[in-house]
Amino acid sequence: MADPDAIARLIEIVRRARARDGRGPAVVVSAMSGVTDALLGIAARAGAAETEEAQAQVEQLRQRHLAAARTLVPAAALPPLLAAIEAQLDELSAVVTALGVLREVSPRTLDVVAAMGELLSSRIVAAALVGAGLPGEWVDARRAIVTNDTYTSAVPIIAATNAALEATVVPLLDAGRVPVLGGFVGATVDGHTTTLGRGGSDYSGALVGAGVGAAEIQIWTDVDGMLTADPRIVATPKLVPQLSFAEAAELAYFGAKVLHPSTILPAIERNIPVRILNSRKAEASGTLITADPPASATPLTGLAAKRGLTVIDITSSRMLMAYGFLRRVFEVFEQFRTAVDVVTTSEVSVSVTIDDRRQLDAIVEALSRFGEVSVEGDMALLCAVGDRLRNEPAIAARAVSVLEEVPLRMISQAASRRNITVILRQSDLAHAMHRLHEEFFA
Q: CATH topology for 302-441?
């Protein structure tokens, strides 16, 4: 949803979808390009009492959205849309004023601000569809996606969300309409605005698809589909035409940017195929994710990577094998709400990786009460994924041997045996990914 051109492409995608079966589709959209970052910046400025600068940014967003509306919607249909945009941004301006007085931005208030982008873009898309002769109808996502109250990274309450979708979206589909919702946005049972975390628009799309019993969930992006490697590292990665839910989940969790890690969970529960498509190449087949795809012709399905990791080593020759030691270690990470990516153990130490350093000092202090702790930053994770790893152990051995000249800090194979993961210096990541890609995909 980068700009008016992207919305114009969306209109044609919807038109073709309706021509195929005459029903729906339900449409879930992101904010326009850069808007969420701008909103977070506005909140930060307002909380720092830089109210004038924050209000100037609000006005920039106002003019950008009004201009997009005028570009996409016929003049006769503009007045109600322009009024809705003005009201939304007046509300944002009032929140900025309040934050400037309070000089504090709570997570709950931050969600109110961050949600504005998707609420605005979805209104514009719904009106643009109507202007193009399609029966678009705006649905407030806060009435359709029900979450807990973990503000800024809320967790959907599936049963309540399905009931809300049954009440708000399904009747529109039954009536032949095209419901349009903002992704990333929800609300608590009490109606307080929440957001699902960055990348949450894809997750919202999957929740809606599962909740309305869609035949297929489509994620429209600006790339051809899931690729065999990060195109920012490997210049010519290959398209993965089809893969399993399990493989997609591994690749998404370990850094494949094209898919939010939570996106396919609702699809798995309802066994709904997920297709990743390029909005600039609408005729291309993209990547299809299903429960049981055909056997892969290549030993691996794809590679994923994460930068900016920190390795923490906890050493205790006296306590490591003692009952309850590992529980104490992981209670520290739970206490400071910090997720762990990879874990390995040796006779006297436990090594873990984290990508969130905000509580690092406190974590180290807590761990130091029962072990010696060392920390190493500027690390990266490289993950090779493929269902064939489960039954062909030689593939994992081959992957590690390809990296024999690269110093590996940690090596791990998950219980699912669908991936082999190595931790290495960030400076070695590009070389290591190139070596693996040449070995398995060239």
A: VC0802-like (3.30.2130)
DSSP assignment string, 68-118: HHHHHS-GGGHHHHHHHHHHHHHHHHHHHHHHHHHT---HHHHHHHHTHHH
The Cα-based distances of 190 to 143, 149, 154 in angstroms read 11, 9, 14
Hey, what amino acid is at 26?
A
Cβ atoms of 244 and 256 closer than 8 Å: no
Whole-angstrom Cα distance, residue 57 to residue 54?
Answer: 5
Q: Is residue 143 helix, strand or coil?
A: helix
Cα-Cα-Cα-Cα dihedral of 200, 202, 204, 206, to 10°?
A: -140
Question: Pseudo-torsion of CA 223, 229, 231, 235, nearest 10°?
Answer: -130
CA 435 to chain CA centroid, Å, is 28
Token reading at 121: 């873009």
Contacts by 403-407, CB closer than 8 A, 24 or more apart = 403/432, 403/435, 403/436, 406/431, 406/432, 406/435
Q: Which two tokens stand for residue 201?
A: 């628009």
Count of CB atoms situated within 10 Å of the CB of 258: 21
Domain boundaries, the chain: 4-215, 302-441
Distance CA 323, CA 116 (A): 50
Listed in sequence order, the residues at least 6 apart from 323 whose beta carbon sits closer than 8 Å to its beta carbon are none
Give me the DSSP letters along 269-287. Answer: HHT--EEEEETTSTTS--E
Alpha-carbon distance of 59 to 384, in angstroms, equals: 46
Q: How far apart are the first and last CA of the chain?
A: 34
Q: Across the strands, what pairs with 243? A: 289
Give 382: exposed, middle or buried? Use CB within 10 Å, 0-12, 13-18, 19+. Answer: buried
Ranges of residues in the chain with a pLDDT under 50 are none
pLDDT in tens, 417-440: 899 999 999 999 999 999 999 999
- For residue range 59-113, list pLDDT tens digits in order: 999 999 999 999 999 999 999 999 999 999 999 999 999 999 999 999 999 999 9
Tokens of 430: 């590009």
Find out whether 250 and 419 touch, Cβ atoms under 8 Å: yes
> Is 0.85 surpassed by the pTM of this model?
yes
CATH number of 4-215: 3.40.1160.10
